[in-house]
Amino acid sequence: MGQKGAETRDRLLDAAQGSVEAAGYFGTGLNQVITASGAPRGSLYFHFPGGKDQLVAESIRRAGRAIDDAMGGLVDSSASVAEFVDGMLRHLGDRLEESGWRKGCPVATVALETAATNDLLQEACSEVYGSWEAALRTQLAGRPDADDLAVTILALTEGALLLARAHRGRGPLDSVARQIGALLR
Question: Do 110 and 121 contact (CB within 8 A), yes or no?
């Protein structure tokens, strides 16, 4: 694929990722993605022959990698696991607030909408969540409860993002950060 093709593909993924995160799978239409990306309709099916499901699955994986990258940057600047988690919650809260409370977790809405009925999207969501759990387990290495804590921290984070989005305020994220800090003592 040439540079122009890669740029078109990236524009389609950008548009899909933004829409899916803000409106979910069912709130995202292909015409909307095509319009937002400025790509020709034929490009959508050229780059994503599996249609909407393939486009959404790839956008979820891409969004997951962006969060992975942010977590990687936090690893370098954190002295402790509690500081790492606090930084992660701050980053996610900033992202949510900057989007006008529209973009919480880039995976959660699609997981809730489709995991029981769409294997391709369930696999993409599971893959991303698994990657985040692995990153947390790495930070918790050496603790006998690392597996359970990684799942707990991720679940608390997801719940806090949902509540912060619903309340349009960072309070739930701050509360969860304090409680995770207490768990890690």
Answer: yes
| Alpha helices, H only, the chain | 3-23, 30-37, 41-47, 51-77, 81-98, 108-114, 119-139, 146-167, 171-183
Annotate 84-134 with three-state secondary structure: HHHHHHHHHHHHHHHCCCCCCCCCHHHHHHHCCCCHHHHHHHHHHHHHHHH
CB 171 within 8 A of CB 177: no
With tokens 């790492």, the residue in question is: 84
Name the token pair of 152. 């707990």
Sequence-ordered list of residues with C-beta below 8 angstroms from that of 141, at least 6 positions apart, any chain: none
For 31-51, b where at least 16 C-beta lie within 10 A, e where not — what string? eebbebbebeeebbeebbeee
Q: What is the rounded CA–CA span in Å between residue 143 and residue 185?
A: 11
Each of the 185 residues of the chain gets a pLDDT tens digit; together they read 677 878 999 999 999 999 999 999 999 999 999 999 999 999 999 999 999 999 999 999 999 999 999 888 888 777 788 888 999 999 999 999 999 999 989 999 999 999 999 999 999 999 999 999 999 999 999 999 999 999 999 999 999 999 999 999 999 999 999 999 999 98
